[in-house]
Amino acid sequence: MARMMCKCGETLSTVQVPNEIELFVYTDFEMDEINAMEINDPLDIPDPEREVWRCPHCERIYVFDGNKVIRTYVLEEDEEGENGGK
What we know:
Elements: E1 3-5, E2 11-13, E3 22-23, H1 28-36, E4 51-54, E5 61-65, E6 68-73
């Protein structure tokens, strides 16, 4: 997956590297495995199990299984009416 339309209408693309869309999110188990490896080059770090994207406009989070979105998370307004502690 390299491009998709966010529900807010923003085009999300990971074609450019680096980008502000793709997040590298590892579980504790994945990090334990990585820490146990003898890695000399950062490029040898394995990719996380799931691909995670964040929309820079609305800050929705999309979690992928392969090319399929399996979860979408939307920020809720806090009690003061501010998003995500910004």
